[in-house]
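[Archive record]
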Amino acid sequence: MKHAEHDTEESDPVRGADRQWECEVAWQDDGGDRESICESFWLLQIDTGCDSPKDLPVGSEKWYSRNVLRKQRHWEKIVTAKKKRRKQEKERRKAKHAEDKGAAHQHSKRVLKAIAKERLLAAKEAAPWLCIDLSMTSHMTKKEISRLAAQIRRLYGSNKKAGKPFWICLTGFVAGSPISEECFRMNDGFSNYLMDTTPESYLDLFPLETIVYLTPDSENALQDIDPHRVYVLGGLVDESIQKKLTLQKAQEHSLQTARLPIAEYMVKNANVKNYHSETLAINQVFDALSTYYETQSWPEALKAGVPPGKGYVLQETAL
């Protein structure tokens, strides 16, 4: 549209003459910066409302040129302010980008991946082992098995990012079983996960005195994490709530059991459904274990692992 209007002005000699006269008036009053004044007229699209110099009242030439310059100065202030804001925003983005690069120590994704791999492999020798007992999938529906496969993916992702990772082992992982097929179907790159998978039972892999079976039904609150122990989580997504199934299995083999110290550090929080549960998904239990292993703080660990929907809050929060 602007190009069309400009072409119309150039093709109209009368209007062009009027435009030239307007520039002459402003130029004389502004000390001779003719090119600047004329350009401002065109940019601002200011129309004097007069068809020729004869239509102007006597003595109005100076008033008219001052009005134009006032508008021009106002416009220049707006443009300058916008440029200043753009410059400040650009500098802010550059500073944030530099800060983010510094936080990542300027490592490439390839280097970070190699560091994470090295950290995980080192955990196999020096860190606690966490076994997921998959021998109870026969008690689960297909939907529950799919949910368990998704939880295994989240658990592995959390461990991969942890500063002090565990070594993960899936026991009772039989090739061709429903849980095996779901893990490969739902989890991209599952075959490349840095963890152990075995069809054997944890009972045949480790000395019984080193095993601690984690179950919400245990009477013993977990006090600390011992890197020389093997912690076992029951791979069970139980929508029908088969109570004490994992506890009974541990007791059959006289295993030491423990639960997260939710009752010791948290209190029930009033909610509309009056719902309170200490039963967590395996990835949520792991988030609590992993956070405690790094921070040595159960409040921090439970805050990370127990979602608000379970109906519990930290005691200090409830006060």
In short: Residues 1-19, 21-32, 46-54 have pLDDT under 50 and may be disordered.
